[in-house]
Amino acid sequence: MDLKIGLDIGSTAIKVVFTDGDNILWRGQSATRPGQESVSRALMGNGLAELGLAGEAIVNVSVTGYGKKLFGRPGAVADEISANAAGLFRLSGGKAGMIVNIGGQDMKVIFLDARGRLSDFRMNDKCAAGTGRFFELAARILDTSLEDFGELSRRAGKTLELNSTCAVFAESEIVSLLASGTPREEIIKALHASIARRASALIGKEMNHPIWLDGGPAQNPGLVEALEDELLTEVLVLEHPQYTVAYGAILVAR
Amino acid sequence: MITTQDRRFRLLQRAAQKCAAESGNLLDTLRGREDYQPEFEYFLDLIKEPTAAATERRSGRTAIRLLCIQAPLELIHAAGFQPFRVFSGSHAASALATQGIPALVCPLLRAVLGEMALDKANLSGHPWILPTTCDWVVKLPEMSALTGLPSLPEFHWMELPRLKNDGNSRKRWMDEIWRLKDFLEKTSRHAVTRTALLASIEAYGRAADAFQKLKTSRASGRLSPVWFLLVGNAFFLDAVENWTEQVNRLEKALFAPRVGQNRHARIFLAGSPLVFPNFKLPFLFEEAGLWVVADDLCSSERLFPGKTFIADTSVFGMLSTLAGRYHQGCLCPIFADNDRRINNILGRRPEADFRGVVFEVLKGCHPYDLESFTLEKGLKAQDLKFIRLETDYSPEDTRNLLTRLEAYRATLEEA
């Protein structure tokens, strides 16, 4: 067995992928909290236990993400944008030309060349607008689980527009809308549209087709629809988009 | 009872402590580096005390405060003064100047205002020369008053024409140079002689030669970009002759290139000035495996845009040459016709052999921000990888910047 582990220590979640050659054996994630290395090791321990494997079977651990320096003695370290590009290109069967990744604290637009190599990228600066953190904030105010966002936005009657893309101002705007009796379905749909506009601004004029949405928020079909409406093109999503970067770390380290 | 004055005094005391800690920590980090050499100690000592008073003591001359480098240093020197650049990269100082001015003032000018509040550099009470470069500089005296600082002492405006390739502009700038000469003579109470001006041009020429050797050492891997920046930052803190001597001494003593350095990707650094102790980006470049082999920062390579060659040694002839060099030779983005900037980057490419350009914009520095878009288009068309980083003096975007720089390095490998 050629057991390799990809570990993505992100700002909101730690994701782990186990592979044997081209096969993905196991995936697992845990919320990020202080002591990232021990959380990561516990997560890897869960994976080994579920697969019935011993620690000695591990050939290599590749680490990426904001917290990669917090993991002592990794087998390899990868930058998360290259890992995202490599992971998605492989998992999409070599079809990806552009990725929009929404992470916990950032939004990235990644351009790949025809051979799947990272050719260019754009990333937001320290502003939290349009990131996973923005979604979490909205979910808390709306007292709604993030998993329900997609379904709820589909049920929206009217199409609202949030005036603010700033996380702080949007928060007070959502509170005002709720206070004025606006259904939360409409607010959620407006949130998706707001993030899609943000992504569109980051993309600019350049588009490499097809476009893939990646990262945890990509599991939200409401966001996918909003992005398609904004970019006027089909947006594709992998089955487990939150694990692409962890998987890609293994590929980049090869 | 605690008065407002007491509270302000305590606020300034805390800010002064933070500034000292910020600077002290960075000096400790530099001294603890693997590539530290004793020859760096002179420059570290200068940076440790970056005040006008200390500079006057070291150089034996009265300091004339400058913000930008459009005023010919040779002329100031020939008038018997020490040119002292009022610059600051202190986050603690910039945090001090927040009230009464727009939120988006560039951090450099904000830090200057903070330093003025601390009076660390003994900034008030001595002559200033203010070329009308960017909007923030033009509004400095006004912002100084708005933030409750004493108004600037005697200062001399130099109206900088925003067109370089225009005969009328050149004539107007030449008039400004003569006005500056008059101001300096009036302030010093003696005339700028032909001999003194020639001697000053030669002294700055020797400094440019010494710095040129360091540029070569940085490009070849003998001197790290972090140290190079420090040496440039120290330029205004001592007499030009002393600084030149120490740069030559350092250059001779530099170790051979380290093996690991060739693993770094070679880049050109363009954009807003980087000033001590704001060394956030240079350290992140190292961490991401990037080596700055050339730059066009006015706090680094652009201190010496080139040696001044004098054909006509009359005062008029020398001032004409200096005027041209400081105006037409300037790459600052405040100019409307600034093709020289992109041409300079592309022209440096064969010799410096870089694969990409990092363009850093200080938040609020609008001319650089605007020009970054033009440069991106032009440089990408020449197959150079380009990244624009917008940041300020705070450390909170460090992880975000590192993520981008690491990925940028990966794109250089793919190129």
Structural overview:
The complex is a heterodimer of chains A (254) and B (415). Chain A starts with a strand and ends with a helix. Chain A has 254 residues and is of the alpha/beta class. In chain A, the strands form two sheets. In chain A, strands 3-2-1-4-5 form a five-stranded mixed β-sheet. In chain A, strand 1 and strand 2 form a beta hairpin. In chain A, helix 6 packs across helix 7. Chain A has two domains: 108 residues, 2-Layer Sandwich (Nucleotidyltransferase, domain 5), CATH 3.30.420; 142 residues, ATPase, nucleotide binding domain (Nucleotidyltransferase, domain 5), CATH 3.30.420.40. The radius of gyration of chain A is 19 Å and the shape is globular. Chain A is built from eight helices and ten strands. Chain B is of the alpha/beta class and 415 residues long. Chain B has one domain. In chain B, 53% of the residues lie in helices and 11% in strands. In chain B, strand 1, helix 4 and strand 2 form a beta-alpha-beta unit. The mean pLDDT of chain B is 92. Chains A and B meet through helix 2 and strand 8 of A and strand 8 and helix 17 of B.
Topology:
The complex is a heterodimer of chains A (254) and B (415).
Chain A: E1 3-9, E2 13-20, E3 23-31, H1 36-51, E4 58-64, E5 76-77, H2 80-91, E6 98-102, E7 107-112, E8 118-123, H3 132-142, H4 149-154, H5 167-179, H6 184-203, E9 211-214, H7 221-231, E10 235-236, H8 244-253
Parallel strand pairs in A: 1-4, 4-5, 6-9, 9-10
Antiparallel strand pairs in A: 1-2, 2-3, 6-7, 7-8
Helix pairs in contact in A: 2-8, 3-5, 6-7
Chain B: H1 4-31, H2 41-48, H3 52-59, E1 62-66, H4 73-78, E2 81-85, H5 91-96, H6 107-118, E3 128-131, H7 135-138, H8 140-146, E4 155-158, H9 167-188, H10 194-220, H11 225-233, H12 240-253, E5 265-271, H13 280-288, E6 290-295, H14 315-327, H15 339-352, E7 356-362, H16 366-380, E8 385-391, H17 398-414
Parallel strand pairs in B: 1-2, 1-3, 3-4, 5-6, 5-7, 7-8
Helix pairs in contact in B: 9-14, 10-12, 13-17
